[in-house]
Amino acid sequence: MVNYKDLGLVNTREMFKKAMAGGYAIPAFNFNNMEQLQAIIAACTETESPVILQVSKGARQYANQTLLRYMAQGAVAYSAEISGGKPVPICLHLDHGDSFETCKSCIEFGFSSVMIDGSSKPWEGNVEETKRVVELAHQYDVTVEGELGVLAGVEDDVVAENHSFTKPEEVEAFLAQTGVDSLAIAIGTSHGAYKFKPGTDPKIRLDILHEIEKKIPGFPIVLHGSSSVPQDLVKIINEHGGKLKDAIGIDEGQLREAAKSAVCKINIDSDGRLAMTAAVRKVFDEKPAEFDPRKYLGPARDALKELYKHKVINVLGSAGHAYDK
Question: Is 95 annotated in the active site?
Answer without folding.
Answer: yes
